[in-house]
Design goal:
Blueprint lengths: L1 H4 L11 H4 L9 H12 L7 H10 L5 H10 L1 E2 L9 E2 L2 H13 L2 H12 L6 H14 L5 H6 L11 H17 L3 H11 L2 H14 L4 H11 L4 H8 L8 H11 L4 H10 L9 H7 L5 H15 L7 H17 L1 H10 L2 H11 L6 H8 L10 H12 L4 H5 L7 H8 L10
Antiparallel strand pairs: 1-2
């Protein structure tokens, strides 16, 4: 694994308290002093952050090495003997990062690479480097960011690392389109500690492309599965049969809290095939799991059946029987039946709660029928089915129906990205 290749390079742990109050460790250039003056002024309640950033940026390219060193050392230089040592605070860190983002990237990257080339890389330097790479790095730098994560003796990331690394990775993912390819490859090469931070960053992205990455992470690192599922609950809904089937399998032996999260997440990625696992969870020994399963089934069905497995199983069986016995005939009525038959079929389609994607495909021909009211009713039913990724599922089939596409997709192209 990539992190293993760099083992021993990174000093693990937090910055010692004594080191945090030591004087500046090296020579001070005029740029160090000028930056320090601005950063110390930032502690004043009257100092506007925008003015501080502007002043730091106006120091120009010669100040880049000094700003990078301040970030990586984690302290503000003393400009007078009467000044006390000052730890670089989080607000001051953000001021330095904001300034460096506006300075020439080549010089900033060169100064950072010089700091990271020193072995061993100290904890503060590693964290400062990760934060800066989140702002100026390329997708290929994700491996390096994960390899720099400070780990405790048990292989887990330190608390400070979690607080600083997760936002940095989130910024890179949002800023660099190619980072999604890098995320998949980096996950395969990293260890569990950095992967845990990647999980949080993926959840924070709120991007549907994170779904399959989190699924892969849960399978690669089983101890991280609950964390992955927790993040999957917050991502956009989409149809991923393999994921919902995996969740159903996990639910059969999961501990109570994990089982509760699975119940809440499973319907977001399932279209009915895995709902039997929720019905079985109604018999769980823990009340909070039973309640979560009941809430999920009610959300999917729109029904308020009692928390009794038999009642829900009957409903699920009726839905599956409908799929087997009625779908084909109704699809034919929509496609070529008399207007009254097509309208009746569309109305029956509106009651479907599982297998909705098959219903959506059956509805497409109705969008082109010339008879009054049929196309509009078909669009209404499609909207009412509340299929999260209907635009991605139907793809080019909606291209000939711009009005329906606008209602379903908010004006987006039918080629909506899929996970």
């Amino acid at each position: 694994m990539l992190h293993g290749l760099l083992a021993g390079v990174l000093m693990v742990g937090s910055v010692p308290a004594a080191a945090q109050t030591e004087p500046w460790p090296g020579e001070l250039s005029p740029e160090h002093r000028a930056a320090a003056v601005q950063l110390r002024q930032a502690r004043s309640q009257t100092a506007a952050p925008e003015r501080i950033v502007r002043s730091l940026t106006q120091l120009g390219t010669p100040a880049v090495p000094a700003l990078v060193e301040i970030l990586c050392v984690g302290r503000v230089p003393q400009t007078a003997e009467t000044e006390a040592p000052m730890i670089l605070s989080e607000p001051q860190t953000q001021l330095v990062l904001s300034a460096l983002r506006q300075l020439p990237r080549t010089q900033v990257r060169g100064a950072l690479d010089a700091r990271l080339s020193v072995s061993p890389v100290e904890v503060r330097t590693a964290l400062g480097g990760i934060e800066l790479l989140g702002d100026i790095g390329e997708a290929a730098d994700l491996d390096r960011m994960l390899a720099l994560v400070p780990l405790r003796e048990d292989g887990q990331a330190t608390r400070e690392a979690r607080q600083r690394v997760v936002p940095a990775i989130t910024r890179m993912i949002a800023r660099e389109p190619k980072s999604w390819d890098a995320v998949n490859s980096s996950l395969r090469r990293t260890s569990q500690g950095p992967a845990r931070l990647l999980v949080d960053a993926l959840g924070a992205s709120r991007d549907v492309r994170a779904v399959n990455v989190l699924f892969a992470c849960a399978r690669q690192f089983p101890p991280l599965a609950p964390a992955c599922v927790a993040q999957l609950r917050a991502l956009p809904q989409c149809h991923v049969p393999e994921l919902s089937a995996w969740m159903a399998g996990e639910l059969t032996f999961a501990a109570a809290e994990y089982a509760r999260m699975l119940c809440a997440a499973l319907p977001r990625y399932d279209d009915g095939a895995a709902l039997g696992a929720l019905v079985q969870a109604l018999g769980h020994e823990e009340a909070k799991v039973r309640e979560a399963a009941q809430a999920a089934l009610r959300e999917v069905s729109g029904l308020a059946l009692p928390a009794h497995a038999g009642a829900w199983q009957d409903w699920l069986d009726s839905q599956r029987t409908w799929q087997e016995t009625r779908l084909s005939a109704l699809a034919e009525a929509v496609r070529g039946g008399a207007p009254s038959e097509a309208i009746a079929a569309l109305r029956e389609f509106s009651t479907v709660r599982i297998g909705r994607r098959a219903v959506a495909e059956a509805l497409i021909p109705a969008l082109s029928r010339p008879e009054p009211g049929i196309a509009g009713l078909a669009a209404e039913v499609l909207v009412g089915l509340q299929i999260p990724d209907v635009c991605a599922q139907l793809g080019s089939a909606l291209d000939a129906h711009p009005q329906a596409r606008a209602r379903l997709c908010g004006g987006e192209s039918a080629g909506l990205r899929q996970p």
